[in-house]
């Protein structure tokens, strides 16, 4: 415990492992030395000076070898288990952080979409009041879709394409013949999914960053190509805008980076600007990963129970194998000092406590204590 606090930032470093093992080994040899003094002076009534006179380094060879092997096994098992537990904790933290980040990115869409839609409506009111009225009606339908989909991780491609068509029709109310689009909706896999509102953000970027006029009409093409949903527009860059990708495109890239290893690809040449977003056929997300670590579900409880039983029986088998070996080594090479009793008793005590935890009082007590605390918390909440 002391070393864990001392090596707080390097808990699983090689330096920490070597220091812990060396300290345990030195302490074990010191205890063996004290036990030899106790046996020779107290039990056999020899003098302390006689003990030091007859004591030889060779008396510690076998105990040192045995201690080295046993401690090496114990430390290896401990650090392996602790390292795996730490990895699980890290994954929980990563999952929680990614979930929070994903929610933050999704929440950017709602105000971002509303702000840009109001800008379009403001322009229409001045340019074409009749279209502004129709735009308002259509906008309510579009915004309903935004509210329904913004909390989802993935949505079917068919729904996203249908929404994109509605959104493009809204844009055409404003730009009329200055804007044209091609939308392919055939041969779409019903299981295919994309990040919600990704097309809306890409279409919005296309209009925002390119010239849209009667002299230079903007054409936007939306189609499926080899596992990607492609949005391609004529490259007619507005000179007044800086060379940047914009909030919308970066939002899509960030959200895809959280839920999949497949990348959003961007290509640009003299005539076109193309963005390809991956079509996903299986919904995998860090939110699901976080759910897998939910300690209240039945699967986790069953798995934890199996691990406890496996750990205990492994401990028991090791005890039954190692202790007889230690007894043989002790009686064969140093029968005058029966040190194997200390290993057998110490390990046996630990094995007994392990058994109580797995099968007996400890596990029942923990369960009762958890229920008691939960009842107290419920009572507190009732009176708030």
UniProtKB/TrEMBL annotation:
Domain 2TM: 301-374
Transmembrane segments: 17-38, 58-80, 312-333, 339-359
Transferase as UniProt keyword: yes
InterPro entries xrefs: 2TM_dom, Bact_2-comp_sensor_kinase, Sig_transdc_His_kin_internal
MF GO annotations: phosphorelay sensor kinase activity
A GO term from the CC aspect: membrane
Signal transduction histidine kinase internal region domain ranges (all copies): 100-179
Domain of life the protein comes from: Bacteria
Keywords of this entry: Kinase, Membrane, Transferase, Transmembrane, Transmembrane helix
Keyword Hydrolase attributed: no
Signal peptide, first to last residue: none
PANTHER family, sorted: SENSOR HISTIDINE KINASE YPDA
Entry protein name: Histidine kinase
Organism: Flavobacterium hiemivividum
